[in-house]
Structures are given as C-alpha cells and as structure tokens.
Amino acid sequence: MYKTLSAVLAAMLLFTTVDIEGQQQYAVEDGIYALASDPGIQTLFAFIEDMTPQLRDELIELNEIPAPPFGEEQRGLRFAEMLREAGLSDVTIDAEGNVIGRRPGRTGQRVVAFTAHLDTVFPIETDVTVRVDGDTFYAPGIGDNTRGLVVLLAVLRALEHGAIETDADILFIGNVGEEGLGDLRGVKYLFRNGGPQIDAMIAVDGGRTNRLVWGGVGSHRYRVTFEGPGGHSWGAFGRASPHHALGRAINEFVRKAPGVTGSGEKTSFNVGRIGGGTSVNSIAFESWMEVDLRSGDQAKLDEIDAVLQDAVKTALAEENAARSSGEGLTVTVERIGTRPAARGSTDSPLVRRAAAAMRLFGVEPDLRLSSSDANHPLSIGVPAITLSRGGISRNAHAPNESWQDVDSHIAIQINLLTLLAEASY
Length: 425
Fold this sequence. Notes:
Structural class: alpha+beta
Strand content: 15-25%
CATH architecture of the largest domain: 3-Layer(aba) Sandwich
CATH topology of the largest domain: Aminopeptidase
Number of domains: 2
Helix content: 25-40%
Number of helices: 14
Number of strands: 19
Distance between the termini: 29 Å
CATH superfamily of the largest domain: Zn peptidases
CATH class of the largest domain: Alpha Beta
Radius of gyration: 25 Å
Largest sheet: 9 strands, mixed
C-alpha cells in the first residue's frame, strides 16, 4: 500500500533534482529529507520492520492488562517496566497515574512529549483476552489505544538501538484519562502549573496511517438530573414526574438542536445514557441523562450548549406547571467533561514536518480535526498533533474491536521522523 524502504530511498534521490508534486518543498523546508537521508536513520527504518514480531507479542501482553477508566494503574506499572527495559533510566509515575520516561537531550532546553493513552473505554469486568487470526488481533481496546503504547516502545527502542542523540529532551508518556469521563485528566495534569516543561506534544492515537490531527474537536458533557417527591403511580397521580420532565427536555432539545447543527462547522449532540426510577408502578423520584455535545468551533459548541440549557429549563417549568398536586421538581445540570475546541495551524512547523514524513512514504496527509489528548495543549498555545498508530483498526469502542497488522511499520517510521525533526536530531 505504501512505499517500502528502498522506494523511500529512491524517492529521496529524485528529490535532489526533481520537485515531485511539491515533495521537495516539504522535505527540504522541514529538514525531513536530510533526516531520512542520514545512513543512521535509514538503518533504523529496517530495524523497525524487523521488530514486528516483538511488537505483536507486546501488543497482546499489554492489552490483556485491563485499563478501564480510572483503573489504569496495573497497565501503567507494566508500561513503566517496558520503558526501563527499552533503555530509559528516568521513569516515574506521577500523582495522576501518568507514566513518564525522560530521554535526555544534548541541551534539554526544549522538551518534546511523545504520548499515548493507557486507558480504554471498557469496564474492568470486560474480557480483554486477545484472539489472533493470521495478521489480525481481536480484543476490546486492541487498537484504541494499546497499539499506541506499542508505537511509543518501538520508537524508543529504535532511538536506543541507533544511539541517536537529540537536542531536546523527549518524554515518553503513557497517560491516563483520555477516554470518556476521564476528560483528558492525564494530559491536563501534565500541563498544570508546576508540571513538567513541555514545549510540543505528539500524541499517538487513531487508525489510518494518513491521519494527521492538527486541531481539536471540543466537547461539553453533562449529567442532567431531575428530582421530585416520587410516589405511587395511582395513589400519588398528579405529582410532577422526573421521568416526564426528562422526556420533555429531550424532546425540546432534539427539536431545536438542528437549528445549530444544520449549518456551519460540524456540530453534534447525543443523549448517551438515561436512568432512574424504582418500579413500573412508582412515580420516579429521580431521572437523569448524560449528554455529549461536540464541535470543532468553540462558538458553535457554546451555541448548542445554550440550546440544551434552555431545553432543560423549559422542561422543568412545563412539568411543574402540569402537576395538580405535590411539590415541584428541581433539576441539577452538572458538567462532567470539557474538551476545548482548539486549533493549531496547518502551516505550523510541527504539522509540516509530520506531513513531509508521510509524503516520503507515499502517504498523502489527511489533515483533520478530532477529539484527542492534543486538544488541551492546543487550547493553551502549545504546538500539538496526533498521529496514527498504523495498521488497520476496526470497530473501536466495541467488544469486537480488531487491529490488523498491515504495513504497520510505516506509521512507526513516520512517528520516528516527525519526533526527531521536532526534537532537533
């Protein structure tokens, strides 16, 4: 599908005399051509390909250590061991659970973070045993994002194998809290006041090799809870019902939300979970829903947020007005997740370097917005991108998730080149 090592080297020779579809501009401008032409780096390309059997074994081992939301500790401990085994001596686990391995640079004046999240979306009781069928691996979390952790190990091992020095320090980080209600807690903790110096970040997440995320799709997540006195469905009939109020709120929201989502920047909404009540013949005393709102534009995200807030207020007023007895309902709207919508620049050096690395392997970059760990650093002005873990991922976040080992070394080589260019090899 993509260029082999020999094809890459042949293409680089052509760059010296021919500008093929603008590739020379990318390669020379960002130093990727000179970097990939280095005999030492060319040796690492082959080393990465030879590492494939080991990486498959490590993929299975790590995946079979459960890492549910807020339960990443055991996987983190093993990942820390693997970083040490791969050559790092300075490996720590911070108070939030992030595993941080520092590879010192020549000066260390800049620090580049190379990250992949430890957690999966699956609860602790999920069977995460890996089934292998040829080149395809089946298990919850196998692609998202166990494979990302393996990419970090592969790049680290390649650097150590080649005794490669960079000017900047590189932090190899297995971070917690990317999925669901984790709310980017790991990355937010890394960038806290008093946290480690990080001048740029490259996250490894997502499937297709050409995926280059340069901006963050923001999200607001809410838990909306209506509460009331409850009672018997017959004897207390006429009291306000939290379930009825919730139904009114959902109806009002989905009726008005298309006024926001129907034009402009893509914006989405979803009522993901609902609950409450005690029995079929009881008026609920509590009814709740969890709602996910998303957009790549913060103004649109705030706009759809306002529609939700108004729908909840309207539903509360209507249900209380409709009651013929009893006390009125109350409602609580709790923000349970915030990912800022933030963008870097498609013309930034970090994005151009990643795009140039992709083109060297015949991969045309798909520059896109997505929701990833890069959201937070981008929102505070730190250059950040998200690159692919390679191979072919299918059915992410589903029990039948799979990852197929097709040209998976290419993504590792792209990550390596991008990281070395950013860390000033």
